[in-house]
Design goal:
- Pfam families: HATPase_c, HisKA, HisKA_7TM, PAS, PAS_9.
- It catalyses: ATP + protein L-histidine = ADP + protein N-phospho-L-histidine.
- It is a single chain.
- Helix content is 47%, strand content 20%.
- The protein is an alpha+beta fold.
- A five-stranded antiparallel β-sheet has the order 2-1-5-4-3. A five-stranded antiparallel β-sheet has the order 7-6-10-9-8, sandwiched between helices.
Length: 786
């Protein structure tokens, strides 16, 4: 019994070696390389199993049994690997599964090399030969893990091959039978041995051999697998058109990558063809087994696409129809081009504007009646002519291309030039060549309006730039858009600094009032001659007169405002001067009515006495003359104030020494003595300052109580920011210090009371501050700070 079984194993090893050669020649085909490994492992396993049975030494038997066990695992895994490739499963999935399962033989090899790890516990000593095989061995956990792996592999491979059989049974019967044998052989023999033969040796190795031979023969001998997934033809796989294999039941057996991409569906296999293509039942092949191309529309990912479909039936070797080959060709782009052409043709029937079509050489293909009316050519006179025959020599024409929208001059048949606007778009012509369709518009009126607007705009820009008044425009948010040179000169900011920025001229203390006026203008009101104060770049504020109006867009909505601003600093200064002059005129009127009346009355009285007095009237005439002299002094001082007031001439830098010497020469008297102590240089109107000093010097001599023997000492000296004039006279009584600058106030019987008023007027005209204190020697001290 054992001898026949051992001979069968040797025979099996030889058959497996032969099939190694068959599989090796087809190793580049799907499943080829795994089948080489399968038959090699099967041959090794058969030899090892035969040596295991034939050996009598326990150590030798265990060695060969271990080799056979490892070979068994390799056989099972290679069988599953071949089945997966045979059925066309994804490569990455197949490699991951096989790599995981390959851990089983690897663990077995490592376990055999390490002490203590084995599949079976060692039987009792002295047991040899056939007795060893009949002994009751105790399997270890490693054995159960190994057998579990073999079972999982067998189940997985059987499911893959049965699925392939179901898919291909209608198309390739011979190959389907081989697939079924490969799937069921391991289970059939294993069950037969277990329940019917009940032989002591393991016959499953012959089951694996039968399965492997069936798979090898089905793949490489029958050569009937070309149209199905395991070994599709390279032509079908790589052709640009989609191909679908449909069985006699109308179910999809296979699709190529082009069909999957075309239909955007990777789960087509197994589906009914009528669920993919609507109306499939009416598209079956005719009696000759072929149906020519016809157009259909399908919905792919919510988008309508157009296909051309051709169907061809095919038969097996017994001439029985086993399925239909469906070829799909995407014609969506062509259909859409045809639709666009139809749309372009519709333009010529419905549009009222001039329309024309050009070929790739810019020659006229066709045009509509409005175009013919515009250019003055009837019928088809321009067909075949270059478009430059009616369009001016525009760069867009001579360069061989138009932009999406451009302007050109149309030259009519009568020689008139008409400015036009062109809209061009690419189009496919009836013959498939690329062309362009264009719409042309007469823009003569628009050009005339644009020309007028350009001239008006240029004038306005010139006016704004040349305006002596500041002109500022801003939007509703206060962002500056226009800032003319006058504004830059007035406020100190350049146009580049403020354009695009918020209006900077609003002072913090006047923002509420300015905001209120801004809101009035934004509401539609016009502002005229409104006076306010505005801020300059250097931080100072200036008085200004503002006139403002809203800016409206073409729809009448207010989008901003424009302001014209005038600097009224000089006007305000003149106004203040006029007010002061009016006040002074009032003072003059009071003087005329009071101070001049007294000497007039004195003179009139003495003249009357002279007339009525007998004898010498000299005393009366002398008194009348003195009164008239006083009147003359009053009139001179009054005229000085009235004529000159606070006006000064051109200023220059002059040493105070020179001014003081000129003034002292005009009032020189033995009753006074001048001292000049380090005086400064001042910017002034020299003549007016000399007049100021003359009045101060006269006042010091007149009121200081000086004599020729004891003259008044007058000193002109420097301050940190100006100069002073001091004397050592009797000084000014405390009660009179606040009155000394009032017009007409004097403490001398023969004084006019205008001297210090003139001094204050000249100081104010220069912008100097003036004060009066007591000098170090008890006299008067007048200080002037520039």
């Amino acid at each position: 019994m054992y001898e026949r079984f051992v001979l069968s194993l040797y025979f099996l090893a030889g058959v497996s070696a032969l099939f190694v050669g068959v599989a090796w020649r087809k190793r580049d085909s799907p499943g080829g390389t795994p089948m080489v490994l399968f038959h090699v492992a099967l041959a090794v396993g058969a030899l090892a199993y035969a040596r295991d049975i034939a050996s009598t030494a326990l150590a030798t038997q265990l060695l060969y049994r271990q080799i056979a066990t490892v070979a068994q695992g390799v056989v099972a895994i290679a069988w599953l690997y071949a089945a997966l490739q045979y059925a066309g499963f994804d490569r990455s999935l197949t490699r991951r599964v096989v790599g995981l399962l390959a851990l089983d033989p690897l663990v077995l090899v490592v376990g055999f090399l390490l002490p203590g790890l084995t599949l079976f516990r060692t039987p009792a000593a002295g047991m040899t030969g056939s007795l060893l095989h009949a002994a009751e061995t105790q399997p270890t956990p490693l054995f159960f893990a190994h057998m579990g792996t073999i079972l999982v592999v067998a189940l997985a491979g059987t499911l893959v091959l049965v699925q392939l059989f179901v898919r291909s049974r209608h198309l390739y019967r011979t190959q389907a039978a081989a697939v079924l044998v490969a799937a069921l052989a391991p289970w059939t023999i294993a069950l037969t041995q277990q329940y019917f033969l009940q032989v002591p040796e393991d016959a499953t190795i012959f089951a694996w051999s039968i399965s492997g031979v069936a798979m090898t023969a089905g793949l490489y001998t029958f050569k009937t697998l070309d149209p199905v997934p395991a070994a599709q033809s390279a032509i079908v796989e790589t052709m640009g058109d989609g191909t679908v294999v449909v069985d006699v039941d109308g179910r999809i057996s296979d699709v190529n990558p082009a069909a999957r991409a075309l239909l955007h569906d990777d789960a087509l296999v197994g589906r009914d063809m009528s669920s993919v293509i609507e109306g499939w039942e009416g598209m079956r092949t005719d009696g000759n087994g072929h149906r020519d191309w016809e157009e259909i529309s399908v919905t792919v990912d919510g988008e309508e696409r157009y296909l051309e479909v051709e169907t061809t039936s095919f038969t097996d070797r017994f001439d029985d129809e086993v399925g239909t080959l469906v070829v799909l060709r995407d014609i969506t782009d062509r259909k859409r081009r045809e639709q666009r052409l139809q749309q372009y043709k519709l333009i010529f029937d419905s549009v009222t504007e001039p329309v024309y079509v050009l070929d790739g050489d810019d020659r006229v293909v066709r045009y509509n009646d409005p175009f013919a009316e515009l250019v003055g050519y009837d019928g088809d006179a321009l067909v075949g002519e270059p478009i430059s025959a009616v369009l001016g020599p525009e760069p867009t024409v001579t360069d061989g291309g138009f932009s999406d929208r451009t302007e050109a001059t149309v030259r009519t048949a009568s020689g008139t030039d008409v400015p036009c606007e062109l809209d061009l778009a690419p189009v496919e012509l009836d013959d498939g060549d690329a062309g362009r369709v264009g719409i042309i518009r007469d823009i003569s009126r628009r050009k005339a309006i644009e020309s007028e607007l350009a001239q008006t705009t240029e004038r306005l820009e010139t006016l704004v730039e040349a305006s002596p008044l500041a002109i500022i425009a801003h939007d509703t948010a206060g962002v500056v858009d226009v800032w003319n040179p006058a504004a830059a000169s007035l406020f100190g900011w350049t146009a580049e600094e403020v354009r695009g920025e918020t209006l900077p001229i609003i002072p913090e203390d006047g923002s509420e009032e300015l905001l209120e006026q801004h809101e009035r203008v934004q509401a539609g009101a016009h502002l005229t001659g409104w006076e306010t104060e505005l801020r300059c770049k250097d931080g100072r504020t200036i008085p200004a007169r503002v006139s403002a109006a809203p800016i409206r867009d073409t729809d009448g909505d207010i989008v901003g405002s424009v302001s014209i601003i005038a600097d009224i600093t000089e006007q305000k200064a003149r106004q203040r001067r006029l007010e002061r002059q009016n006040e002074r005129l009032d003072e003059f009127a009071s003087l005329v009515s009071h101070d001049l009346r007294n000497p007039l009355q004195v003179a009139a009285g003495h003249i009357q006495l002279a007339r009525t007095t007998d004898g010498d009237v000299t005393d009366h005439l002398d008194d009348a003359e003195n009164a008239l002299t006083r009147m003359e002094e009053l009139i001179d001082d009054t005229l000085t104030l009235a004529r000159q007031g606070r006006d000064i001439g051109e200023t220059e830098s002059v040493p105070t020494t020179r001014l003081a010497e000129r003034a002292w020469a005009n009032v020189a008297t033995e009753a006074g003595r001048l001292t000049i102590a380090d005086p400064p240089v001042v910017d002034c109107d020299p003549d007016r300052v000399v007049e100021l000093l003359e009045n101060l010097f006269s006042n010091a001599i007149r009121h200081g109580g000086g004599t020729e023997s004891d003259p008044v000492a007058v000193t002109v000296g420097a301050l940190s920011s100006g100069f002073y004039v001091a004397d050592d006279g009797t000084g000014i009584p405390d009660g009179d210090i606040g009155k000394v600058f009032e017009s007409g106030f004097t403490t001398a019987a023969d004084g006019t009371g205008f001297g210090l008023d003139i001094v204050e007027t000249i100081a104010d005209a220069h912008g100097w501050s003036m004060s009066v204190t007591e000098s170090e020697s008890g006299g008067a001290r007048f200080e002037f700070r520039v």
